[in-house]
Amino acid sequence: MGKIKTLILTLCIFFFSITTVSAACTAEETNRLNSLAVNVKPSFEIITKEIPAEDNFNTPDGLTEEEIENYKYYRDYFKIYISNVTEDLYVKVTNKRTNEVNTFYYKDVIDGVIVFEKKVYYEINNYVIEVYSSTKTNCPNKKLYTLYIATPMYNSLSESSLCEGIEEFYMCHKYLSVDISFDNYEMKINEYQKGKIDKNGNEIDDNNKKDDKLLQENNWVVLSISAGVLLIMVSATVIIVKKRRSKKI
Question: DSSP assignment, residue 199?
Fold first, then answer.
């Protein structure tokens, strides 16, 4: 009988504790946490790091054994920052390409930001950043906000001889935020060189080109007429001045 009473008392205390915790997660507290969550901001930069020789397979041809031994290898990385993560928050970062999930807490914050690095790939990487309330709050583990960030892909086609002299064309950029395929690569470059598309790959309207040409021609006409009128006015002024001088003499 005593054990049953003890069990009932324990269950009552347990349920009472749950009710108390739940009641503490008020709308005011939720609003406060939401305000913190929307301040979380992701960003990235591209950095170049020296890597061990054994991690590289692109040693240049024609090097001596000594040169190969002393050769330094470098690779580009994305340095991804997540700022404004307070002790009331933590974030889950999911790489949609690989389904890799990493969780970062306030203890991972250094100088105000969470930082992690990823290698540059030949594909675009999309990241989903979910912001949660931490266990230090009255609303623990509650998803508050979702952010998205994408790192561009390395464009190996930028090294092609076709891109020489037209590095401003988007398909010749070293990093791209849109997928491209080699199937239309050469065709697009030819269209750009012929003036059919602009540097961003947008088609140039023939009517606009005709209007631009007509406008240029009209400008020349206006300039020619203006120059002619100016010349007549100058000539007339010179003649008038000469006549006045001759009368004075």
Answer: T
Token output for 105? 């807490």
Distance CA 235, CA 241 (A): 10
Q: How far is CA 154 from CA 76, 118, 174, in A?
A: 9, 13, 6
Q: Which amino acid is at 245?
A: R
116 backbone dihedrals φ, ψ, rounded to 5°: -145, 155
* Model-wide pTM > 0.85: no
Low-confidence spans in the chain with pLDDT less than 50: 1, 6-7, 9, 11, 14-16, 18-22, 222, 241, 249
d(CA 109, CA 134): 14
What sign results for the dihedral spanned by CA atoms 134, 139, 141, 146?
negative
> What is the token pair recorded at 197?
């598309």
Contact 132, 101 (CB under 8 A): no
Q: Which residues contact 170 (CB under 8 A, 6 or more apart)?
A: 176, 199, 200, 201
Structure tokens at 116: 């992690």
89 neighbors 134 (Cβ within 8 angstroms) = yes
Cβ atoms < 10 Å from Cβ of 39:
13
Mode of pairing for the β-strands spanning 41-51 and 73-83: antiparallel
Q: In whole angstroms, what is the distance from residue 224 CA to residue 122 CA? A: 55
Tens of pLDDT along 104-118?
A: 999 999 999 999 999
Closest CA to 84 of 24, 143, 129: 129
Cβ-based neighbours of 151, under 8 Å, separated by 6 or more = 44, 78, 80, 118, 120, 124, 125, 127
